[in-house]
Amino acid sequence: MQYFLGKSGKFFKANLHSHSTVSDGELSPEEVKKVYKSNSYQIVAYTDHEVLVPHKELNDDDFLAITAVEIDCTEPGVKFPRAKTHHLNLLSKDPDKTTFGCFNLSHVWQPHSLAYVSEEQKKINFPFSYSTEVLNKAIKLANNEGFLVTYNHPYWSLQNLDGYSGFEGLWGMEVYNSISDFFGTPEDDRPFDDMLKLGKKLFPVCADDSHKREHCCRAFTMVECQKLDYGEVMTALEKGDCYSSFGPTISEFSFDKGKFFVKCSNAQRIELLTDRRYGLRVLKEKKPINEAIFDMENFIRQNKDDEKTAYVRLVVTDENGKKAYSRPVYLDELENF
Ligand SMILES: [Zn+2]
Ligand SMILES: [Zn+2]
């Protein structure tokens, strides 16, 4: 049996997008920790706008703060509600990191955030402009500096395929964002699928983007690793030993001899989607379902020639329409076939 999720059975619950009083959030970093910890999260990425601030003082046996920053670049000359924008989260593999290369002082739009900018950081002035080419340079720089980069809330940013298809080097893309869902334009997994179909390998992210208490603890990423250790968590994220959700949980996603096996919390739909005009689903009848087996032997045989780009991905939907998403599994990863 080959496991994509559930081999160790040890999952840590993370919110990979949050704001605090360091930028435009209402809760202090300590209050953010308190809220998430009391709702059984163990990991929070502090992605305050434009400033990279480690919060190691918050770490304890059951809580890990990921050092991170959210950067943005907005279309010039258009009024804000209609201006297109690109927002990227940079998650640092090094917990002690306090500078990053795609920083520009003029982008720090919360005056009080300036207090968190070191003299060393102020010397770096990345020449931002609203262009895919320039932002690809920012992403490349971030990757070289050890950041995993997520493309945030494409719908809220008023983007379509033309806007995001040119990006390279992304680790993830948001498929759900709590604040967009409740207070803006709901996200979904279409832009993520567009990117996968262009041959870009990236992971789905459901996150809160919490700015106030009421945005917190709706979405999560489950990270599968042995212990709550910064290096282990970031390695698991980088490898894709994780899934993202705003409702259901997945306890197993595995493969053996042409069949995929799924175990999950109560669901009304368990689907295996592909990049082809083909997908399989198991629907609830009278009672919610908790497992599914998908025979994909024919699909794998027919698409073996494209095994580097052909993928399957799991989507679990609960009775309230809330979803959990696995990463794409490429046919060239499959063993025991
Ligand atoms: Zn944003
Ligand atoms: Zn944000």
Report the CATH C-level class of the largest domain: Alpha Beta
Determine the CATH superfamily of the largest domain.
Metal-dependent hydrolases
Helix content: 10-25%
Distance between the terminal alpha carbons, to the nearest Å? 10 Å
Tally of separate domains: 2
Which geometry do the CA atoms define?
globular
Largest β sheet strand count, sense and barrel closure = 14 strands, mixed
Q: Could you name the ranges where pLDDT drops below 50 across 5 or more consecutive residues? A: none
SSE order: EEHEEEHHEHEHHEEHEEEEEEHEEE
The CATH topology annotation of the largest domain reads as TIM Barrel
What is the count of DSSP helices, taking H or I runs of 4+ residues? 8
Question: How are the SSEs placed, and which strands pair?
Answer:
Blueprint: E1 2-5, E2 11-18, H1 29-37, E3 43-46, E4 64-74, E5 85-92, H2 119-122, H3 132-144, E6 147-151, H4 161-164, E7 172-177, H5 178-183, H6 190-197, E8 203-207, E9 220-224, H7 230-239, E10 242-245, E11 250-256, E12 259-267, E13 269-274, E14 279-283, E15 289-295, H8 297-303, E16 311-317, E17 323-325, E18 329-330
Parallel strand pairs: 2-3, 3-4, 6-7, 7-8
Antiparallel strand pairs: 1-11, 2-9, 4-5, 5-6, 9-10, 10-17, 11-12, 12-15, 13-14, 13-16, 16-17, 16-18
The structure holds zinc ion (ZN) (2 copies).
Q: Can you offer a commentary on this structure?
A:
With 337 residues, this protein is α+β, with helices and mostly antiparallel strands. It folds into 2 domains: 8-244, Metal-dependent hydrolases (TIM Barrel); 250-333, Immunoglobulin-like. The protein is 18% helix and 31% strand. The protein has 8 helices and 18 strands. It has helices spanning 29-37, 119-122, 132-144, 161-164, 178-183, 190-197, 230-239, 297-303, and strands spanning 2-5, 11-18, 43-46, 64-74, 85-92, 147-151, 172-177, 203-207, 220-224, 242-245, 250-256, 259-267, 269-274, 279-283, 289-295, 311-317, 323-325, 329-330. Strands 2, 3, 4, 5, 6, 7, 8, 9, 10, 13, 14, 16, 17 and 18 form a 14-stranded mixed β-sheet that branches. The chain has a 4-stranded antiparallel β-sheet with strand order 1-11-12-15, with no helix packed on it. The protein is globular. The termini are close together. Residues 17, 19, 47, 70, 209 line the site of one zinc ion (ZN).
